[in-house]
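Deliverable D5.2: sample structural annotation.
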Amino acid sequence: MRPSWLLDVHDEGLGVLTAWIRRLGGPARPWRFVVACPLHVTASPERLRALHVWLDQPEVRLHYGVVDCVSIEAPVALGESPKPVLEVTLKRPRDRLKLARTIDDRGLHRHHTLLSVDVDPVQAWLTSHDLELFDGVHVDDSAPVPWPCDGIVDDLRVMRLDGEWDGPVHDGILRGVRSTPVEPIGMSSAGAEHTYPLESTASVERFLESFERFDPDIVLTEGGDAHLLPALRQRAEA
């Protein structure tokens, strides 16, 4: 089995994550998989039993997208002894938020404590699987799982892109872009920085040709998803 490494994980917003995984000597590939959306509730054992009975009703399960409901014991904070916790698994993050709002609107917040309401699904998945970016992984039938690999993939290419803007980033005009190769660990510069003005179609093509020659596995930006990458795409399509 060739070593594989986890490069990045993206939240698709509907209880689905996309993990980008690269095998040694091969391209990065996306793997899409469904993740559970848990809501944890603490209260007295009697109140948790009553909430459990309510959540087990077929119409409630259907309305809120309840997949499972299990009573467990777990520490609510570091250093605390385990307490009764009701773990409710829902289909989607929006179902979790809807159920949390219902519990709050019904006045149950006076007796119940809601946990895991605003959890980042990517970080929750990484933590629950004891994974960090660039860790070794193996892909089974459902999702990536930890798999020990020696070192880090030695031919991983990472590029940092910085935009040069005329005006504020959120509504300015992209005038140029700087590209810098960086090390996968530590993100220090691994090569010369190049600046590409974007005043003409020819200059945009020069940047794209340079980008394709380097063929990065990972592109680092600051606010790139919201500003730089859409602006680059708009200039390339103009």
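Annotation notes: The first helix runs from residue 45 to 55. Helices lie at 45-55, 58-64, 93-105, 121-128, 201-214, 224-237.
The annotation will be released with the project's public dataset once the embargo ends.
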